[in-house]
UniProtKB/TrEMBL annotation:
It catalyses: tRNA(Arg) + L-arginine + ATP = L-arginyl-tRNA(Arg) + AMP + diphosphate. Its EC number is 6.1.1.19. Its main location: cytoplasm. It comes from Paenactinomyces guangxiensis. GO terms for molecular function: arginine-tRNA ligase activity; ATP binding. Monomer. This is Arginine--tRNA ligase. The keyword Cytoplasm applies. It comes from the Bacteria. GO terms for cellular component: cytoplasm. Residues 436-555 form the DALR anticodon binding domain. A motif ('HIGH' region) lies at residues 132-142.
Length: 555
């Protein structure tokens, strides 16, 4: 537990002990003590509403309860400098913040591991994200989902979870058949043969490119094959090429997966049939109109869902249920990152898991909303290169991986995002990723200046106690909040909290830097301030690493 959390827990215990000592309520009736950081700084470092929570049991006015608590609290043991009762009964605590120098000692000791927690040690979680069909390039929705999923996986890992990052390859079903038909049409077209392009075919440039490569390597050999054999071959080649491109693009985007799970394997292993049998044994399927249905309304879905259609083929839902069953057999908790068009899919999947006997709350779904690109104040709908939708590859080429990932993670995933490409590449304080990265680069510049003067940070207590200004103490407190932010972001599945934290930290650092000289004639103070800056730089590095963004030394 980091020093700030230790201080917080000590204060909570002292508040509870004060309530017990007051004799107002039985110990068993005391609720959990909640401490929050007040919005206004003049209201203290922490505040609690425990007095208002006790009103019903104590049968007293909350301000009277608050006064009794304050009278009994051991302020010295809790490192309290001042206590105030405010409003209807809030208790505001102003802490002796000299303990904050221990935060710098911990950062210096932990280095790149500072912020990591054992809070969820041993808990397994499977995070599935991106999972684009291998039928074309990755686009904006995949780009946002990949950035969010990867950042969330990093944060869960830092909070102590054993994380499996998984990509579900949709390599069975109609979309793959349509991909093969589209590739066949481009192949025939490239050979000068008349052909009708499939009405719902994939018209991306990638199909033309693969077809041209096939003509170069195979010539017209595929024409001699039976059509069924030709389509099977094209499906195999198309999947290999397109999935290979997806993997390559994601690697450049700094996204790696532990598991690439094939939908086709569910058919080959018999997992789908086993899952259907399990649902039947549980009594949650029935036949009607020649189809097999799931009684999903028994678990809160708005209507029952078809599992096997009249023609004997599976619906999209059926292999998906088998897949989620497989994941739950491998991991105790599932997190899916889905696009906005999957919002209605959540209740039916949870219903299916409940029908199989699983706790549906073991599945969490993070929805990523739509992205709109803007350039020069105008909405960008098409790629300048292809005239089609803008791809992940093109976006990162134009604005860079750092800016792309930062912008996609900085907002709550379930909110629409307007991505300003001009802002993303600008070198100004209005660009949030530049603003945070510049804080790190600025600190590195200070260290280069210090090195020229033969000066280095001091972690000695005698030096660090010189850090007494309000801005210095605020910075140390902010640094101390980082481990707690990681745990909260993990529990709330909210990677944007880390980005917001980093922006706030950068703001406090820039404010301090503009108000205080770091390298002064007072060597001891200068070395203490260098230690403070090293702490800021380390936390910026650690935080940016969680969201997949570099911390440059020069800008």
């Amino acid at each position: 537990m980091n020093p700030l959390e230790q201080m917080k827990e000590t204060l909570k215990k002292q508040i509870k002990q004060a309530v017990i000592a007051s004799g107002m309520v039985p110990e068993t009736e005391i609720p959990e003590v909640i401490l929050e950081v007040p919005r206004e700084k003049e209201h203290g470092d922490w505040a609690t509403n425990i007095a208002m929570q006790l009103t019903r049991v104590a049968r007293k006015n909350p301000r009277e309860i608050a006064a009794a608590i304050v009278e009994k609290i051991d302020q010295q043991s809790a490192h309290i400098r001042e206590v105030q009762i405010a409003g209807p009964g809030f208790i505001n605590f102003f802490m002796d913040r000299s303990f904050l120098i221990r935060v710098l000692n911990e950062i210096q000791s932990a280095g790149g591991k500072y912020g990591r927690s054992e809070a969820r040690r041993g808990a397994k979680v499977n995070v599935e994200f991106c999972s684009a069909n291998p039928t074309g390039n990755l686009h904006l929705g995949h780009a946002r989902g990949s950035a969010v999923g990867d950042a969330l996986s990093n944060i869960l890992d830092a909070a102590g979870y054993e994380v499996t990052r998984e990509y579900y390859i949709n390599d069975a079903g109609n979309q793959m058949n349509m991909m093969a038909l589209s590739l066949e049409a481009r192949y025939l077209e490239g050979l000068g043969r008349d052909c009708a392009f499939p009405e719902d075919g994939y018209r991306g440039q990638e199909m033309i490119d693969i077809a041209q490569d096939l003509i170069q390597s195979e010539g017209d050999r595929l024409l001699s094959l039976e059509r069924e054999e030709r389509l099977a071959y094209l499906k195999k080649i198309g999947k290999e090429r397109l999935l290979g491109k997806i993997k390559s693009d994601l690697k450049k985007y700094r996204v790696e997966f532990d598991v690439w799970f094939s939908e086709l394997s569910l058919y080959e292993s018999g997992a789908i049939k086993d899952t259907l049998n399990a649902l039947k044994e549980q009594g949650y399927t029935y036949e009607e109109d020649g189809a097999l249905w799931l009684k999903s309304t028994a678990f809160g879905d708005d209507k029952d869902r078809v599992l096997i259609k009249q023609d004997g083929s599976y619906t999209y839902l059926t292999p998906d249920i088998a897949y989620h069953r497989d994941k739950l057999q491998r991991s105790g908790r599932l997190i899916n990152i889905w696009g906005a068009d999957h919002h209605g899919y959540i209740p039916r999947m949870k219903a299916a898991l409940a029908a199989l006997g699983y706790d549906p709350d073991k599945l969490d779904v993070v929805i990523t909303q739509m992205v709109k690109l803007y350039r020069g104040g105008e909405l960008v709908k098409m790629s300048k290169r292809t005239g089609k939708a803008v791809t992940l590859e093109e976006l990162t080429e134009e604005v860079g991986v750092d800016a792309t990932r930062y912008f996609f993670v900085m907002r709550n995933p379930d909110t629409h995002l307007d991505f300003d490409m001009d802002l993303a590449v600008s070198q100004s304080n209005e660009n949030p990723v530049y603003y945070v990265q510049y804080a790190h680069a600025r600190i590195c510049s200070v260290f280069r200046q210090a090195a020229e003067k033969g000066m280095s940070p001091s972690w000695e207590e005698s030096a660090l106690t010189r850090l007494q200004s309000e801005q210095e103490l605020d910075l140390m407190q902010k640094l101390g909040e980082f481990p707690g932010e990681i745990v909260t972001a993990a529990e709330q599945l909210a990677p944007h909290r880390i980005v917001r934290y980093l922006y706030d930290l950068a703001t406090q650092f820039h404010s301090f830097y503009n108000a205080q000289r770091v390298i002064t004639d007072d060597e001891e103070l200068s070395r203490a301030r260098l230690a403070l800056l090293e702490g800021v730089a380390q936390v910026v590095r650690n935080g940016l690493k969680l969201v997949g963004v570099h911390a440059p030394e020069r800008m």
